[in-house]
Design a protein that fits this description.
mainly beta, 6-stranded mixed β-sheet, 6-stranded antiparallel β-barrel, 23 strands
């Protein structure tokens, strides 16, 4: 039996909803993003059919063969990592399964209205529907979504304990502040509901980064539907997130290098970048 991993960042399960017009949103990737597609096969199944990428604009096809990793005696992972594709509009097919369309672009004006989410787990034991470590090497999924953080969607929180004196003065014995930011998912055209479904799922991972900054779900927050685009199956969601501050520097440096796919030629050299909050940092890679 084959199963396309639900963590795969392009959508292969068509909606059964026939009411209204489907969303006009076309998923966007940058040419530098890496689209990891996984199929988990159990039993004695042979390799799945080759994946075909259909180029909508040029009306041609490209065939990709699967790489495989035998996880145990009964389970095999098949995977393909799409990278370096030409700009254009595509959809993928695996046998009878077709994905929604997606585009590859280097247009900064288009990419400016998106954020890149990268996610992975600490090991393979927590999920049976995705593989994050392949033959001893950690992998991150890349998922780019329309939207971003807005300044009017911040919530300020404090956890504190106070003592009241006889004069009714308040004395803080303990205090710890935090800021909850709402990630807006969907632009003026909205986005299909499966964007929120995947975001809710990927936030269950140990490591979630948005434009190089690590975030976690705020308590039990889930994507909340705020606006429905009239007459379309298209929506705008918000998701409460908190930045992770207490980080293990060794793990963070390793994760950042994996996500950036730093080539071996840069090992031992200084690597400087800015975060989404414009905080500059250096890495020795």
């Amino acid at each position: 039996m084959y199963r396309i991993s639900p963590f795969t960042p392009i959508f292969f399960s068509p909606s059964a909803d026939r009411h209204g017009v489907k969303s006009n949103c076309v998923q966007v990737f940058s040419g530098t993003d890496r689209i990891l597609i996984e199929i988990i096969a159990t039993g004695e199944e042979s390799a799945p059919p080759d994946m075909i990428i259909h180029d909508v604009c040029r009306e041609c096809e490209h065939t990709y063969s699967w790489r495989s990793w035998e996880m145990n005696e009964t389970t095999t992972l098949y995977f393909i990592e799409l990278q370096g594709m030409d700009e254009g509009v595509y959809y993928a097919s695996i046998g009878n399964n077709e994905s929604t369309t997606f585009s590859i672009t280097s247009n900064e004006e288009v990419l400016h209205d998106t954020v890149l989410m990268q996610y992975s787990n600490i090991d393979n034991r927590q999920r049976n529907d995705a593989v994050f470590w392949i033959d001893g090497m950690q992998r991150f999924f890349d998922f780019r979504v329309p939207g971003g953080f807005k300044d009017d969607n911040w919530t300020f929180v404090v956890s504190n304990e106070q003592f009241t004196t006889n004069d009714n003065d308040k004395i803080d014995l303990y205090g710890q502040e935090s800021t909850v930011k709402a990630l807006t998912i969907g632009n003026s055209e909205g986005c299909p509901v499966w964007f929120a479904d995947l975001i809710n799922r990927l936030l269950c991972c140990n490591y979630v980064y948005i434009e190089k900054v690590r975030y976690s779900r705020n308590e039990s927050d889930v994507p909340e539907m705020n606006i429905e685009i009239e007459g379309q199956r298209s929506y705008i969601f918000t998701q409460g997130l908190q930045k992770v501050f207490n980080l293990d520097p060794v793990i963070e440096e390793r994760n950042l290098l994996i996500m950036r796919r730093v080539p071996p030629t840069l090992e031992g050299k200084e690597y400087r970048e800015n975060t989404i909050d414009n905080e500059e940092f250096n890495l020795i890679v």
